Amino acid sequence: MSLSPTVTSWPEPHSPEESDKLQTPEQDTQQASSGDVPSTHREDTQPGLGTLRRAFSRARWRALGQAPGEDAGLLRRSSHFLRSLRRPRDDGRAAAPGRARSPEGPSGVTDGGRRPSTTGVGPEEPGQEEGKSVADLITERQLLAAFEQLRQLETRLLAQKAAGTFEQDPTGFARRAMDVCLLYDGLAAEIRAIVRETLGPGGVDAAALAELARVVRAEEEAHPVTPADGDFLLTPRRWRRHWEDAVTRSAQERVRQAGAEDAAGAAEGASGLARLLAELGGSVRRDLRQVRLQVQPAYSAAGLPAWEAYLRAFHGAVAQRLQELARDARGCEQLYVLLDWTANVYGSPDFLGAPDLTLSTEPLPPLLAPSVWARLESDYTSFLETKITSCFDSILQLEQSRWVAAEAPDVLQGLYHTPLSIDIHMLVAEHVKAAGAISAELEATTLRICARALGLFLPRFEKAFLQSEAVSEPHLGASINACEELRTSLLARFPGTFEELEKPLVAAVCVFQKRLLQGLQYDVQPLFRVLCTKAWLTHDVLQPLMDKVVAFAHHLEHVAPLRAQETLQEAHRYVVREYLAQVLRPRERFRGVDRVTGSQKMGLDAQAIGNTFQGLGSEATWLGQAIPCVADILGETYKDDIGRHLETLIGSYPDIRRDHVMAILALRRLGRRRNQRLLQHAQSLLRAAAKAEGSGAAGGRVLFEEIQVPTSVDLLITCIKCSGSRRGRASVERIQAETQGHLPECVWAWRQEIRSSCVFL
């Protein structure tokens, strides 16, 4: 006979958390039947079934919240209470006062479906050990024995239901089934207690874990699927899921306890957070090693995947803890500590400290959600950009302090040295290496931040240095070396990222080289003024100039070789250019013997200049023909050979212009036709040189282009052009009248010569 709808619709047993919130209709029915309504199945002096149910309920509900000792005490007291209710054997004796039916058969139903007598006499529980109830077995953690007894009670109760025993008392089946469920819940609570104690200070009880695993497997075999008729007694208890939940809660408690003392310090700075994470990592490492070496073998016999369950549980607990720490992380250091611990400590293959124990993260979700990880990286890079900019500010302040202290740069490995390049190298390498240890994307971002900050730093450094009072050859050489080191090493170490900095670094080097040459020019410029004078013909006025060049080149020995060679060649070009500028704008007019003597003097000076710079290591050999060619034109006695000298000059220096040729020819006393012929020949040579220059054959060599023909020569050339006619002579007189107070003496000395000769066109 089927039970009433109230009984047959009994819900599936809930998890312990859900059971705390639910009160089923059958419980209300049982309370009413056992506590409020008198029953003929028990004596009024005996404790009611409701009292029994509530005793087990308290033990069951508190199992999760109490310590293991408290769970055992509750179950032990329950077992004593159950023994006080156990009936005597069915041998015809009356039950003693205060004794009632056992919890395994609270409604007094006996085998065979016979109704119990009012005296409460019934049979002993089948399969029960002498003197021990299910509660006693649970308390003593004889889980398998307790489960077997519960299965017997369950089987007997179902058989009685099938035999129609409860046709007259439908609620009796519900009461007895509820008692069985309470005992099942007590057994589940003990399972959770064992799991909670597993990683505690008491150590691992391998026997208890093995029995726990067998009980879980036995329950799964006993209740494989939910019955079609909805009978809640045969519904799967899902102890494997309860066991996994208990493992999860145990891992959460262990992770929460780890680093609890350092939790306050974690909010103060990166060091406190690092200590907390170190304690957390050590605790998780110890627990997982214990699981792998002691817990897993105990479970493996029954086939429970303890390692996978604990690994997932600890992984989830650590992830939850890191999520909380990530919300409170502030500053670049704290963010990096979190990222580094996640990627390099927890994510390390040797996190467990043994080659045969690996923390495989492949089947596990990311420790931090992708969105959280992206936010941490974004916050970190924002703080990092500010920090790197601040570091460059500090580097500039250190350099300025050295300038103020007038500290001479050190000579390291033969080169002027400043800590600037080392400081920048260390700054970039440190942050890039740290970012690369976390992820390739963060490394690339950090490289871009460093490159951008260095690009902004270079013009600031250049401006501050040139405005300081420390500008000298040694400091300029040290700055050139620093920029050159940065250019070569950074581009070689980080190709692709720092290529955009090559131009700013080269530009800075050029600025420092130019300033270095300006110092030389300032020193030697007055010495050029004595060239092409009467004193110059009889005295060695070039030697003081060469001495200053040699002293300047001494500093270049401590500059990077490539940049030193560039600077030396530029100094060589400057000396030759300024010498020619003085020749093309002479302060005095040489005639006859003086002109020949001046030509010879120019040849000697050219040889001295060439030998000096060659001895210093200059590779600008192309400059050696300029002064000798002009000297040959000036001193050539066979006038037909002047054209050959012009060919050599224009062929060697294609940047020469018509005005320069006219100024050179003006140094000689040549007739109109010869000058016209030479100038026409020079024009054809200049056109050929221009074509060669356009095709790149000139090689970028510049000398005459930077020599400006003086105004006095321009006027002289104009006068010479116009002096061949009556109108030209009138123009000469007008120009002389207008510029009489401005032309140099050499022009007035040439006035008579202009009138008496007609040259050029």
UniProtKB/TrEMBL annotation:
Residues 14-23 have a biased composition (Basic and acidic residues). Residues 24-37 have a biased composition (Polar residues). Pfam families: Sec6. Residues 1-54, 83-132 are annotated as: Disordered. Belongs to the SEC6 family. This is Exocyst complex component 3 like 4. It comes from Felis catus.
